[in-house]
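User: Please run a holo structure prediction.
Assistant: Happy to. Please share the sequence and the ligand.
User: Here you go; the ligand is heme C.
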Amino acid sequence: MRILAVIGALAIIVAIGAAVFFFGGFYSVAGTAEDTSVVSWSLSRIRTASIDRHAQDQPPASINEPASVQAGAKAFAAQGCPTCHGGPGVSWAKFSEGLHPDPPDLKDVVNDLSPSQLFWVVKNGINMTGMPSFAQAGAKDDEIWSIVAFLKKLPSVSEADYKAWTVSAVPTAGK
Ligand code: HEC
């Protein structure tokens, strides 16, 4: 019984301590606050597990067709992805270096993600990071699949091809 009482008292003390820490403003929400390695390891594991479990939509048959890849390049530019992630021959906007977590250079990560996973991330975004949900921003599934078609080819897309494919892309911002 005594042990239970001690455990109960400790739990109450911890709860009060946590409430004071978070609601008293001691926790820093600064974008510059470094996460401990345990926190960043957990966040990245949680993100990967969540994407694995949720990404169930299957790609359309046209995913490897050049027309989809080129339409995807255009949508990628029009939706503003290069602002945060950069693109072939295009640098990301300076402000994206102030985002925490950092938007990755997509050509370094797309080989680790399946088309279904890329689709899910672009469609739904990643909560509590700068990665927006493009479904919420008005993109239709077809457009998102074309972006996925482009992303899968991204590591081998030349600057010249990207420029040619995106020349008529009009940013959707402000529309
Ligand atoms: C406002 C900035 C911003 C814009 C615009 C943006 N992203 Fe992101 N994106 C991020 C951030 C930040 C992350 C990292 C999230 C994390 O670490 O969990 C991210 C992550 C991703 C990932 C996941 C990478 C991984 O390793 O899991 C993909 C794929 C991606 N973005 C694609 C896109 C595409 C495609 C577009 C345009 C349709 C886009 N992003 C637009 C900020 C942005």
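The longest helix spans residues 2-23.
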